[in-house]
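Work Package 3 (structural annotation) set out to generate three-dimensional models for the target panel prioritized at the project kickoff. During this period the team completed the workflow that converts sequence records into discrete structure tokens, so that structures can be stored uniformly alongside our sequence database. As a representative example, we reproduce one entry of 188 residues exactly as it appears in the project archive.
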Amino acid sequence: MKEITRCPWCGTDPLYMKYHDEEWGVPVKEDDKLFEFLILEGFQAGLSWRTILYKRENFKKAFDNFNAEKIARYTDKKVHKLMNDEGIIRNKLKIAAAITNARAFLNIQDKTGSFAEYLWQFTGGKVKKNKWRSLKEIPAKTKESDAMSRQLIQDGFKFVGSTICYAHMQATGMVNDHLIDCFRYKLV
């Protein structure tokens, strides 16, 4: 049986490999899924994505399945409950940012009708297909992620620096950053 070549960042961790093989880099056009990734990317700031992946189901439960309308109405009581939830990242600033971002997300939907169109404008509505041969070539941010970050901040979002925006673009398939020898490169 032929060995499958993957991007080396996922290593041999089964959950990380499953995420790489089935989800990372697949174009996402659903508002709710894009919102989920934005919330998770914000919590990941300063941590590894692996940490977030292992807590993802806990986040889903704690944050009402990433329902922006519910999150936007969170009270101090709910924040206190989240701060005591050992299954998630208990950072008050990141929790507050998730609530702020839910409100900003709903405002964008009201204004534009589609959060997906709002985000995908930064790649011209298409996947930007890169041709990286090694992880060293992949940038932490780009002019597109800089522009996305500026716009998100202007529209009231928090924890959306350019590096977080680029990670979001990679995860949601706005850019294809699978290495060219990775079996997923041509599939996404």
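The chain has one domain: 8-19+29-176.
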